[in-house]
Amino acid sequence: MEIRKPSVLVIKSILTSLIVGSLLIASSALLVRSTPPTQLEKVLEAGELRVVSSNGPTTYYEGSNGLTGFEYSLVKGFADSLGLKLVIEDESDLDKMLSSVAGREVHLAAAGLTALENRNSNVTFATPFMQVTQQLVYNSRRPLPASIKDLNNKEVLVIANSSHTARIKALQAKFPELQWREVINAEMIDLLEMINKGEADYAVVDSTAYDLNRYSYPRAILAFDVSDPQPVAWAFPAQRDTSLFDAAQKYLGKIKADGSLAKVTDEFFDRHIEEVTTGEAMAFTYRLEQRLPQWLDDMKASAAEFNLDWQMLAAISYQESHWIADARSFTGVRGLMMLTKNTAKAMGIQDREDPKQSIYGGAKYLSIVLERLPKRIQGEDRLNMALAAYNQGLGHLEDARVLTERMGGDPTKWEDVRKYMPLLAKQQYYSSAKHGYMRGWEPVKFVDNVRNYYKIIAWHQQQEEFRIATTSTGNRLSANIRQVDAENAATPDSGNSEANPAALSVL
């Protein structure tokens, strides 16, 4: 059999066929993908959702478990639903924020924006997720104003160059005697504080600002609305490709339908700050007797291991969970000591709802916080600051200490730090703080409540020990009396108490 090798022409022919075939395959692949990827596909491929926002109380801020906030929670949920990493870009200037959206430097803006059509033609707004209304607040020592007419010849505070100023000017056309004063470089929380202190009688603020701060400024009372509700929504670039926009619309529709949006809204705007009132004290005493005993041994064991006071652990756990082992918060904290997922992991805790593990994790975390505080902070100041850090994190505590020193206070004294810590809820202070906005009143209230609960627990413990001691002494007394009675029954009374040593020992 003759075996022939392929000639050069044959080889060239085969190579040509292979090349042509490869080109045809490549061309076919290109034909399959004849359209460019959508914006959503590009975002999914990049793996991250870039959002511009502004650090603040209703948008995003650093909490004890990392970034948190009302709009942060919503946009984080959107990113999670797409399997994307959320990247926040901070920008406080509104015009720059909208420009970055219009220029497609970011994917969207989430910063408490009202969906006004004339704001930027290159931006489009998604379905609103809440409404905000301009409202009049007044000092409770003043008569309740029933309408705009009651404000004639009265001074109303508004933030300078704001939509509130525009609204007041519009109302003046109908009420010529309406007067106002524009406050420069101020936030709505500043106006609420001025009303609360009696430094002003009336002010216009957003409903969100009032809801968020009404417990902190109890004398600033809501009078009536001065505007119609305005929709708050995310801003997207105005473009033909609406794939990412449509995904956001679908997500917003879902969280409205399943109640998630309502839960987030309640968590951030309708949270009741607990006071140790008479009713609460009575409930606390009941729980102290009915719930606490089952966790006592674990608290004492963990306190001993980390050189802590078990009564302090008991007070913290009551403030956190009311001694409910499987307590849960919408923010993700769980268990008796309400540990965050990150804290539990760092403390080596696997099941946050296991009471023994939760108590151990909380005790370990508190001991670490106490250890990390500067050595010059001593005594009760050290414990109070550790409690504040337990609630908000060491970073925010350090911001408060830095601010305290800047304001002329002593950063090693809790009484000074607690005065300035609430200022970190104001932009003029948190804008220069390393860790940004903080609900500054919350750690102060947390420390006060824990301290109050601690006093009640200590008092109750003293009373319990006294009761036990008294009962024990009473039992011994009764036994001795019975013994004396028995001896007296056997021996005639001589009328001399010295003849009865048992009786003397009783006395």
Structural class: alpha/beta
Low-confidence blocks of residues: 1-12, 23-32, 272-276, 489-507
Distance between the termini: 133 Å
Main-sheet strand order equals 10-9-11-8-12
Q: Which band does the percent of strand residues land in?
A: 5-15%
How many extended strands? 14
Write structural notes for this entry.
It is a single chain. With about 500 residues, the chain is of the alpha/beta class. The protein is built from 20 helices and 14 strands. Strand 2 (about 60-65) and strand 3 (about 65-70) form a beta hairpin. The radius of gyration is 34 Å and the shape is globular.
Please sum up the structure shown.
With 507 residues, the chain is an alpha/beta fold.
